[in-house]
Write a structure and sequence with these properties.
The chain is mostly beta strands and 162 residues long. 14% of the residues lie in helices and 60% in strands. The chain contains two helices and eight strands, in the order ααββββββββ. Strand 6 and strand 7 form a beta hairpin. The longest helix has 17 residues. The N and C termini lie far apart (62 Å). The relative contact order is 0.24.
Length: 162
């Protein structure tokens, strides 16, 4: 009986993935893509980065990354990108800058980067910030190919900006 249950469960999962009812990314992302992810506060770091890599070949979305770096004089650079295994209709990355204040992360700004009929997109943005806070980068990475959409999320640690 137990063996038949596992066979049925495997069949349901395979059919769901094949027919697009759900994807591996939706399992990993949770309800909110950043839910369950945490940023460590790094008081001495000059930069922090997160990289998401697809370990299940066969989908379009290959990698996503986001990075924050201290450029000096209370300027931070947020950067990131998205890579596909093959040319897609749209390859997009939105990189967010967050500030840690009163025990919560709050969004400061965002920078969208989009490429059409491409395998990759990336970019960066310099932002003047208020000193005396931790800042981090968040990335939302998306691929559109025909009627298929795949997404992944990245989240850097927080760096101190004096």
């Amino acid at each position: 009986m137990r063996k038949k249950y596992y066979q049925y469960l495997a069949l349901v999962l395979v059919c769901g993935i094949l027919f697009g009812c759900f994807s591996i990314q939706s399992f990993a992302a949770g309800v909110n893509g950043w839910e369950g992810l945490a940023s460590e506060l790094l008081p001495d770091a000059l930069e922090a980065e997160d990289i998401w890599e697809n370990v299940m070949r066969g989908t379009y979305l290959q990698t996503g990354n986001c990075k924050i770096s201290n450029e000096g004089n209370r300027v931070v650079k947020i950067s990131g990108g998205t890579d596909a295994y093959q040319t897609c209709d749209v390859v997009a990355a939105t990189i967010y800058l967050d500030r840690y204040e009163n025990g919560e992360w709050r969004q400061v700004t965002s920078a969208p980067f989009t490429s059409y009929n491409a395998k990759t997109t990336n970019g960066s943005k310099n932002v003047s910030v208020t000193g005396g806070y931790y800042y981090r980068a968040r990335g939302y990475h998306t691929i559109y190919k025909g009627s298929t959409t795949e997404s992944a999320y990245t989240l850097s640690n927080g760096i101190w900006i004096p």
